[in-house]
Fold these 2 entries.
Entry 1:
Amino acid sequence: FTTFDNRKWQTNQVTYRIENYTPDMSVAEVDNSIERALQVWAKVSPLRFTRIYSGTADIMISFGTRNHGDSYPFDGPDGTLAHAFSPGPDIEGDAHFDDDEYFTFSSTRGYNLFLVAAHELGHSLGLSHSNDPGALMYPVYSYTDPSTFSLPRDDVNGIQYIYGPNPDVNPNPDKPDPTPPSTPDACDPTLVLDAVTTLRGEKMFFKGRFFWRSYSQSSTPQQNLIKTFWPGLPDNINAAYESQLSDRVFLFKDRQVWALSGYDIVPGYPKNLNSLGLPSTVKKVDAALYDVDSRKSLFFVGDYYYSYDEEMKRMDKGFPKRVDEGFPGMTSKVTAAFQVRSFTYLYSGSYVFEYSMRTRRQLRVLGNSYFLPC
Amino acid sequence: LPISPPTEEDEVLAETYLKRFFNLTEETGPTARRGPSQRSRKVSEMQTFFGLQVTGTLDAETVTMMKKPRCGVPDVQPSR
């Protein structure tokens, strides 16, 4: 996180006023969105907010278009959604929303006002932009379900750096508050990836709300929120694999599977696991890969794995087999898997086990950083 | 991602974006000709901030990032 040279409100009692409303939402929806956005910050700091209905508040909130009287004109639909000023007198502390955007209360269409306001009010309180792609103060808009929103760790650290923690928090140690979500770090030696896959030459590594893209032209894997690319996909993916046969990437979460064609979700998905021939007793797939030589999809479930013939659309006979039967030496649970240059890589915890499919021999034990550089 | 070189439209977008969010200023005088251009440095600064590969040029990834909806506050604060 970064701050505006430590500019802050000199009191923890901050006033706000909503000067006007967007026609996109009802007055009650705007009021509710702004109130919840302020509470995001109040929950983790000593700041308390009081709404006033006339006169000048510390934070004046307004909707406007193009030139709206502050020398920083808006740019029409998309692009810049809103801006806000750091704490101080007059215009400082104020938050302006570009009313050429379509603001919404809860849907994934347009831009969710709660999420945009929570970010802008972070500026109004003294936070500048963060380069943590999981932070609320990251400058790029990304949809998250507002009903499950939890202020990320980076933002909590930022606001508490300026104002300190909430003195009223957690009076009941038996019922601790949920831990703020942190952004996974490729340099963490204990990192356990949720899923790995290839996609037309790229490698993708999934963890929680995030995934890294890595491709040969770039030495730096790029970390993104899953929702930034696919608002319709769930977080915490269980498994993923690329089928060279159908040129699709399949992503698994619990009993459901999604298919991507390129970067687009294939219509008709998600489907149930049994659409891939898995029995109804399978509640989740831990890892999956496509074996280029045999042209079979392998699904790892606990200590066993299944072999699916996508061409014939049926599970191969003799499966499920124990994982250590097909992959000698693989005695721990497979948590992710893929094939690269005809070698099979089975992830288990923070280790990667390299196998030759021809000899079925384990060749090397590697660390996460082999494919996902720190 | 597009693999074609940046279009004129992309160049204009980049100019506006870097001025607004990365404090790009007009280059004048002989110092502008020494070393990488200010624009290239600002592109690198932006790529570093967003965790992109740092090339100093307007590659497809960088242009895509510039087109994403975002907050209007600069990512780099002008020095005071």
Entry 2:
Amino acid sequence: PHFIIEFPDQKDAICFNINDKPGTIFNLVKDPLTGIIVNGQTIRDKKIDPKNMMNTYFGRFGIIHAKLGIRLMVTTQDILVSERGKQAKFYWSDNTTVKGPNMDLHITKDRSLTVTLRNSMKFVIVLHKVWKKHPYHQDYLGFYTLDSHLFSQRVHGLLGQFFHGITFEVSDVFKGENTDKPDAHMFVKGHNLTVTRGWQKDYRKNVKEGEDVPCWFIHNNGTGIIDGDIGDYIVSGLF
Amino acid sequence: SVNPSQSLSQIEFQNVKINCKVASRFAHTVMMSTALNKANVSQEVSFEVELPKTAFISNFSMEIDGKVYVGEVKEKEKAKKQYEAAVSSGQTAGLVKASGRKMEKFSVSVNIAANSKVTFTLTYEELLQRRLGKYELMIRVKPQQLVQHFEIVADVYEPQGIEFLDAYGTFITNELLPLVEKTVSDKKAHVSFSPTLDQQRKCSDCEGTLIDGDFLINYEVKRAQDLGDIQIVNGYFVHFFAPANLPRLPKNVVFVIDKSGSMTGKKMQQTRDAMQTILSELHEEDHFALVIFAGDVETWKPTLTRATEENVDEAKTFTKNIHVDGWTNINDAVLRAADLLKTARANKVVPENSASMIILLTDGDPNKGETRLEKIQENVKNAIGGEATLFCLGFGFDVKYSFLDVMAKENNGLARRIYEASDAVLQLQGFYNEVANVLLSDVHFQYPDSKVNSVTGSKFKQLFNGSEIVVSGRMNDIEMNDFPVEVSAQSLNTEFLLKGQASTRDWNIIFPDQEYIFGDFTERLWAYLTIQNLLNKKDKGSAEEKQNATAEALELSLKYNFVTPLTSMVVTKPETEEKPENTLIADKLTEDERKEVKASPGFSSYASSSRSAPVNSGTYTSTSRSSPVNWVDSD
């Protein structure tokens, strides 16, 4: 999966990839004070294109808001919601809006799920629908946080650690290995990294084509930009 | 090729690789060439590729010392504005030149440092058209010198099954013939040709190469008496329609022949000769008429006549005696032809189930009677009134081809250029053979609006023997895997109606263990066909329709990275000591441009910028304390 941390004020972004065995569950957000956890499990292509490396994508997300007693499991098939013991199941084929005391949920048919958790978090899960008979690819999901300022300072996770911003310094833009993409030096979290200018996609507005977002790409599974390494973010279950 | 001022031995052509993949008639060809400058001075290396006129370039790159220069497709007008100075100085912006009848030439040259290497890669795509019962993939190869590794590889994947496949080259000698390897299984074919350095030599002790000409692959797919092949792939569908064993419809044809002064000599003689064969090939149930024009219009007989042996013989004698005379009055001649057909229909001289057509042969611009081109087009359209098809043959290069092209398209037909050469008779006969046998008329495809959209066409005036109608569209929902299809038309004796269900097949079963080739083939085929249709539409219809068609064709050309008549490919060349980094433009030529470019070949250089992710230069610190937007996704 591609991770993108965008700083709209600076009109800049940082991006990195996380690749591991398919089926791995990563912690994306963990806030011990608000009791919010977001975990995601990866899937792979149905069949490996001999020309390409094995890509992984997120296929399932598990979201917990402990204080509100809310659990959501979002897969490429359906959306399971439970709130204080009550359960509901929604399908991506629905066009649904549900407003509750603690959670608003809006499904745009076969496209996206927007969830607003009262006084804490708003996020969008994008469904990338792939032709069922596609010999290689299968449906996958994207996770976008829209409003993260209510998280505590202790929030962490592969995405959560960036919720309160980071300080980085970019210098010495120079020609890198790829002539289309210049390299630069980045000083971040006490590390000096060589980063590459590239593009990633934001699929919120256009789920098929996406919109290009220029970003500084951090190589080797985000080494240097994420605290620790990817092994530190692997968890045993979605909840 | 190399700059002729340099010694040939100083440039070593290490690789010429041509890789072609055809899936369901849609051909994707990649031509790659690597040259090494072994000299101790820098020298110019040029790369020239001839590609079919019907193809769209979709990619070009040059790799020099590990640095890759990639061509970028831009809106033609914007590219031109960007390089206004050069364009206003009268330079033609083109890496593409017309080359013969079927091809156009893409050429680029770069300066290569001593002991450096350059790799050129050009990709183009085209939908192969079925003509006279077969598809033809043509690869022109002219390496001009011996190549260390020369290779042509083509893979054909046809889900309908391959009926036959032939591979040969115009340059193939008896010695080279065994090197053309061909493997054909039910739905797949693999063709390769890879002569060694010695096998390429013209003679054992010379440097000349035998490899110089066209490499051709002709094939046909299996057909049944059904709806044809409908493929649904990844949210797009394509329908290939050409049922087997349909009887031909009788035709009512009016030949409109220009005998104006400019036809003097060879052209008139070739027309007379061609008419002898064309008339002989009329079937007895056909009806025909001859309209001969210069300043005035003359008809062989006042009505359409049945093509009996006696009448044909008489017509042949008449055409043998056509002599040139004066002006060119196209308007009155075509209106007379339309009137002959209309009267024949009204008087029931011709059978009800028959196809009417006008074949106009002319070599010049109208200069007698109505001479305003748009007015002639309007008059012709009104006179024909959708009751017949107009085919225009433009003889030679003086003809106003675009005028004929629009006029033909407005009347459901097409125009073809006839080149002045010794084989003009064959060209005329060849064109006639393509359109002479109508199998169905008023072919109407019905797909449910609730299931599909953006269909490339649903009504076709005729289906000719040996041709094929191709329709493509988008599925309303990517998960829809079937939809009902109905095709209705007029056939010889009965109302032709076929109904059926299109459904997705499992590509893993049809082509198991194959490298994945179906990713966006159908989508690109749809885009290619849609752009071609829109380019046709932009020449006819109301001003608003023309504008919309142009805008839509441009959008698709940019989206799918096609160099079409509305876009240009901007190629940045590396900086040299003499010249700063500069940029070239590859355009797609229109028929009129081909004529102009023929007169003034060459290309020009411009200063340019290229697309890359915007970079904030210098040192800066970015601290974000506001809530950033974070996401994780994939593409």
